[in-house]
UniProtKB/TrEMBL annotation:
Protein name: Cilia- and flagella-associated protein 206
Protein's organism: Chlamydomonas schloesseri
Cell compartment(s), UniProt: Cytoplasm, Cytoskeleton, Cilium axoneme
Major subcellular location class: cytoplasm
Protein family (similarity comment): Belongs to the CFAP206 family.
Record-level GO cellular component terms: axoneme; ciliary basal body
Record's compositionally biased regions (Acidic residues): 266-279
Entry annotated with the keyword DNA-binding: no
Annotated segments matching region Disordered: 257-280
Length: 704
């Protein structure tokens, strides 16, 4: 799969670059995996899948062009939803790796100092300088272990931490410390770090220090609460947008049975055999896709809000316990000059541990803030959205039918807005979608509470007027109705992330298989089926689930198989392993090679230079005077045959060059011969011996 996916991503990226479009490789890979999961690749090239084996180059080119055409349309709500899913997962991965890297660096630094302190040759020498050097090393190890990095570089913070350490571990205790084993030294070093942190916290509470400590809970809690308010505001806005889109979808004419059958689900009543107009079908598909996009944004915001809420609750508990311990330390110390260490050391140790937990929550707050900024940027409405401008409400008209017997004032306002062709307000849309339990549903719930599950399902269908037999799947497991604790907020921990299973698994999808996401209505209550609790958006959806819960959930699975983008907002596993975003990110972890060529023009900038341009005014004046003077001149010329013969002509003749013939002469050259001999070896007694050197220059060319 990895090789096939990378080849397709390379081809699609190359095509997008040639078109001048900038795309993210992770988005291209995720869209490719989604298209493979929904069977679109097999429609392009038969018997082709990412996991089926190596794909040919021709198939890669076809699939790459198809994926490039999809990701190139950045205004498509489906592509925006895919970008939101994969890029948020990339952001989570990057922040997790960043925290792991920082933690690893801090642990590595602390480990080096611990080995230096607890090593066999930690104390070198028995001099005061050696003891002082070792004590500074212990102080640095305590600062790094406690997360007080400021005490290493800042003199004021260093002096404060040293004073706290000397009150617990004076220099005189070094001699005994070095006699301990390595494990005992490390244990005592960690305990010293917590106790010193607790002492610094107590000093800061008394107003006598605290410069070595990082930001306290007093700065964390307001930031976390502000971020939680921002996320809650985004949840409300996205929920309102979701309600507006659902009301706009209800304005469209009912989907004909033929179109519903083509979409793979039962449709509403319409014209006999009539097909849905192309513009209405496209409008329905766009609304379904935008509802899916808003549903994904809502699920991510709620997940981030729940995570931040848990962290804020944990931080508040830690801060409350820390304040109680500070009061206990103040009572134990009081005005005494000396306090038993068995009394205060455990309190200081616990204070240090609580502060470490708060510091970790502060780091996570920074991560959540970055994720919130990333999600806010990804969830913004594109210019082509039906909610981005006023023209979004000018869709094909049609009165919405909710299936409830009560007609509210909000419903009349929505109907009047629909007739006027304007989008409804968010408050009116939410109020119109918030149904109450009707008589038929109440009767079904009463029968459900008083009879076995099959009888309850049959009674609910009988009250609904269908008269059909109960499905065998409704027999097990049992259904249980749960009354709502609040009529404005959903119960936490709902299955399908709080979306209605009836809207996804029963209502017909739009063209392209995009099912409808509808938020559960807390006024209707909940149904427990098995080990999960489901919420519902309407009475009809609740009755359909009571009659056949297994069939509705099977319809949800079919909708997810037709559109894999539904898996993440519903909190369900992907329909195919290749559509899992974690597997896609793991497959794209290696280097990606893209073949791409570019052509360089001869001249990047065309030059329009006038070579005859003259900037000097006096030169222009001289040229003008010369031209004016030339206009006053006249040229006269006359020539006759007689004057031609009177002309003097001179002719110059060049004599030919004398030719010389040279004959080849053979010559040779020899080096002089050098001779040396000894003379005077014979003769009279007065003859002296000497060495004679001769140089015979014979056979030279000049001698011939």
């Amino acid at each position: 799969m990895d090789d096939n996916l990378k080849r397709i991503v390379s081809e699609a990226t190359r095509v997008c670059r040639e078109r001048g479009q900038k795309v993210d490789p992770y988005v291209v890979a995720y869209v490719t995996s989604l298209e493979d999961a929904r069977g679109a690749l097999r429609q392009l090239v038969p018997d082709v899948s990412l996991e089926a084996g190596p794909i040919s180059s021709e198939a890669v080119a076809v699939i790459g062009g198809h994926v490039a055409s999809l990701v190139g349309n950045s205004r498509d709500p489906r592509i925006r939803t895919a970008m939101m899913q994969v890029l948020m997962e990339v952001a989570y991965k990057q922040q997790r790796e960043l925290i792991e890297k920082e933690t690893a660096e801090q642990q590595e630094r602390a480990g080096m100092l611990q080995r230096a302190v607890a090593g066999p040759r930690a104390l070198r020498g028995n001099t005061p300088d050696a003891y002082d050097k070792f004590y500074k090393l212990v102080l640095e190890a305590v600062a790094v272990e406690a997360g007080l990095d400021l005490a290493v570089s800042d003199p004021t913070a260093n002096a404060e931490l040293r004073a706290a350490l000397e009150s617990v571990f004076p220099v005189s205790a070094v001699a005994r410390f070095v006699t301990l084993s390595e494990g005992e030294r490390l244990t005592q070093l960690a305990e010293l770090a917590r106790i010193c942190t607790g002492i610094c916290l107590y000093n800061r509470s008394c107003g006598a220090g605290g410069s070595a400590l990082p930001a306290s809970a007093a700065s964390y809690l307001p930031q976390a609460q502000r971020l939680l308010r921002d996320i809650s505001r985004c949840c409300v806005e996205v929920n309102e947008q979701l309600a507006q889109l659902q009301v706009m979808l209800g304005r469209l004419p009912p989907q004909p049975p033929a179109a519903a059958a083509a979409a793979g689900a039962e449709g509403e009543e319409g014209a006999d055999g009539a097909e849905e107009p192309a513009d209405v079908a496209e409008r329905r598909r766009q609304l379904h896709a935008e509802i899916l996009n808003r549903g994904q944004a809502l699920q991510l915001f709620e997940s981030l809000s729940a995570d931040l809420g848990e962290g804020l609750e944990a931080a508040q508990q830690l801060d409350a316990e820390l304040e109680q311990l500070l009061v206990a330390v103040a009572q134990a110390v009081g005005g005494s000059a000396a306090v038993p260490k068995d009394t205060v050391y455990p309190l200081f140790d616990r204070l240090g541990a609580l502060h470490a937990g708060l510091h970790q929550e502060l780091r996570l707050l920074v991560v959540r803030q970055r994720l919130y900024d990333e999600l806010t940027e990804l969830s913004v409405l594109v210019p082509g959205s039906v909610l981005a401008g006023g023209e979004g409400g000018a869709a094909a008209g049609g009165k919405k039918t909710t299936g409830t017997s009560t007609a509210s004032a909000a419903g009349s306002r929505v109907a009047s807005a629909s007739a006027a062709g304007q989008p409804p307000s968010a408050a009116a849309a939410i109020e119109a979608l918030a149904e109450q339990l009707d008589e038929v549903t109440l009767a079904g719930l009463d029968a459900l509470a008083s009879a076995p599950p099959p009888a309850a399902a049959a009674a609910a269908e009988g009250e609904d007027g269908g008269g059909a037999a109960a499905s065998p799947a409704a027999a097990a497991p049992a259904l249980e109705y749960i009354r709502p604790a609040s009529h404005s907020q959903l119960q936490p921990g709902l299955a399908l992330a709080g979306f209605c299973p009836g809207a996804v698994g029963v209502q017909p999808p739009a063209a392209g298989g995009v099912a409808l996401l509808r938020r559960a209505n807390p006024r209707l209550g909940y149904l427990a089926f098995g080990d999960k609790v489901y919420g519902f958006s309407s009475n009809a959806a609740m009755r359909s689930f009571m009659s056949d819960p297994a069939g509705v959930l099977a319809g949800v699975g079919g909708a997810v198989a037709a559109e894999p983008l539904l898996a993440r907002p519903l909190g369900l596993p992907p329909p195919a392993p290749s559509a899992d975003v974690h597997i896609v990110l793991q497959a794209m972890s290696g280097p990606l090679k893209v073949d791409f060529g570019c052509q360089t023009p001869v001249h990047f900038l065309e030059r329009h230079i006038d070579k005859d341009y003259e900037w000097n005014v006096w030169a222009l004046r001289r040229r003008a005077l010369a031209l004016a003077n030339l206009r006053n001149k006249a040229t006269h010329s006359a020539q006759t045959a007689e004057s031609h013969f009177k002309r003097e002509n001179e002719t110059q003749v060049w004599k030919p060059r004398e030719a010389v013939v040279q004959t080849r002469v053979t010559k040779g050259q020899a080096m002089p011969r050098k001779l040396q001999y000894v003379a005077g070896l014979r003769g009279a007694a007065d003859v002296k011996m000497n060495v004679v050197r001769l140089e015979l220059d014979l056979g030279q060319p000049h001698q011939h």
